[in-house]
Design brief:
Number of helices: 15
Oligomer: single chain
Helix content: 25-40%
Radius of gyration: 24 Å
Largest sheet: 6 strands, mixed
Mean pLDDT: 93
Number of strands: 19
Low-confidence stretches: 1-21
Structural class: alpha/beta
């Protein structure tokens, strides 16, 4: 199919939904699902099985055959449940999988103005732990899929929705990893769309862009440790491990990794520049040149939002040391958390840090993790389809190729060679992101539009 035909297919698919008589019912359904999910505490300590079971029961009540709704958990971790549902198509090709996670990070009532595990609507906002990361998207995917079934929509290829466990903790019983390793037949797909890896950015109420995430940085953690024999605090020495460590961390803080643009981030800056003006626009266009100016790089590096796209970053996230207030410390250690641009290796990053630390008395150790995530190539047809859906819902909103600074479950599917796109339409303010934070919220209208967007994505990418 040609590029132009893909655009038209995307537009036609989306417009079919926009004109649907079921739009209001779809939003009501989505809000009901969101309320149910928010009010099930699915933090790591509680697990996701209760939420997965509730969604399985809802899907069965919506008319999905029992053979197409699966509740499954690793035998050693029955509390880490996953639910997988399939809308059968005409079997014209491998399925398209929509991937989400059911777990949320912890939230304490005393830190919030609302009960984090109760869906609260106030002044056009929906509050609750997980509304943006990512129970809002989970609810949208299920509401869209149920609506498609109610309308009698039959896709060309199967549509699968998998809602999984343990993405936030990720190291105990990650659901995406488990499903693809142990239950591959349930989720085997030719394309994965992961809204958790997507981004829809707005500022001051203005919708700026929808991201097409094709890569993410590698999550990599180091431990830096200094040791000494210690002694009485009345006899201080220059070998104090806390001071040794502090001096080294100061050097790490002052260091900037070399600029490393990929195909994704080069195209990102080219397209993002068109949304900016003045110096910012000029700098974004300059940075993609073979020899960008030092001033442009300096300005972009001073901005967190653009700096994390330019290079690998490392930052100290935890520190501990000493054992008694009246004793010289015998040990001090810090955790250094890095986000590594695709294409750079663990050994490369470790070598650069050792060079910067420049102290042979300190031990730098790589902690478990560091799973590389290769880029997904976004073909012109894929981009045209995404743009067609986006523009049918939000005319004039840009679509930008993205490399995420954070990690997602897309790392597991990309590692297996499955093309994976991070696409999400739930607009969040870039200057007031509350995922993982206090009073997490999403706009009522943004949630309503997200359901429309997911519905259109399902129609378009199941062709």
């Amino acid at each position: 199919m040609t590029y132009k035909k893909h655009v038209l297919c995307g537009l036609a698919s989306a417009l079919l939904f926009v004109g649907s008589a079921h739009a209001a019912d779809q939003f009501t359904l989505g809000r009901d699902i969101l309320k149910q999910l928010i009010e099930i505490n699915s933090t790591h300590a509680n697990g996701t099985t209760a939420a997965a079971r509730a969604m399985a029961e809802r899907l069965l009540a919506a008319g999905f055959p029992a053979a197409d709704v699966t509740l499954v958990a690793p035998p050693k971790n029955p509390e880490m449940g996953n639910v997988v549902v399939r809308l059968r198509g005409r079997n014209a090709g491998k399925a398209v999988l929509f991937l989400g996670h059911l777990d949320v990070v912890e939230a304490k009532r005393e830190d919030w103005n609302f009960n984090p595990f109760e869906l609260v609507e106030k002044d056009g906002w929906l509050y609750g732990r997980g509304v943006i990361d990512m129970k809002g998207q989970d609810a949208a995917m299920l509401a869209a899929l149920i609506t498609l079934k109610r309308e009698g929509f039959v896709p060309e290829r199967d549509i699968i929705v998998a809602l999984t466990a343990d993405e936030e903790a990720g190291s105990v019983a990650n659901g995406a990893d488990y499903l693809f390793k142990e239950q591959r037949a349930l989720v085997d797909a030719g394309l994965v769309i992961n809204p958790d890896a997507g981004e829809a950015g707005s500022k001051g109420g203005r919708r700026l862009y929808v991201g097409a995430q094709s890569s993410e940085k590698m999550y990599l953690t180091f431990q830096l440790e200094a040791t000494d024999k210690g002694g009485h605090s009345s006899r201080p020495t220059n070998a104090n491990p806390i001071y040794q460590l502090a001096r080294a961390l100061g050097r790490v803080d002052s260091f900037a990794f070399p600029v490393h643009l990929t195909g994704t981030t080069t195209e990102y800056f080219k397209r993002r520049a068109l949304l900016e003006s003045g110096t910012m626009r000029a700098d974004m266009l300059d940075v993609v040149k073979p020899a960008p100016s030092k001033d442009a790089l300096k300005r972009l590096s001073a901005n967190v939002e653009t700096n994390i796209v330019l290079r690998t970053t490392c930052t100290t996230t935890m520190i501990e040391g000493g054992h008694a207030e009246n004793a010289l410390p015998q040990r001090a250690r810090a955790t250094i958390q890095c986000r590594v641009v695709p294409g750079e290796s663990v050994d490369q990053v470790k070598g650069q840090l050792e060079h910067v630390i420049a102290d042979r008395h300190l031990a730098l150790t790589v902690l478990p993790g560091g799973m590389p995530s290769p880029e997904t190539v976004i073909t012109p047809a894929m981009m045209a389809s995404i743009e067609g859906v986006v523009h049918s819902v939000w005319p004039g909103v840009a679509v930008l190729p993205l490399m995420s600074a954070g990690a997602s479950d897309s790392v597991y599917t990309r590692a297996l060679g499955v093309p994976t796109l991070g696409v999400d339409g739930m607009f969040d303010d870039l200057d007031d992101g509350r995922a993982h934070g206090r009073d997490e919220r999403i706009g009522v209208q943004a949630f309503k539009e997200e359901i429309s967007f997911i519905n259109a994505l399902m129609r378009t990418f199941s062709r």
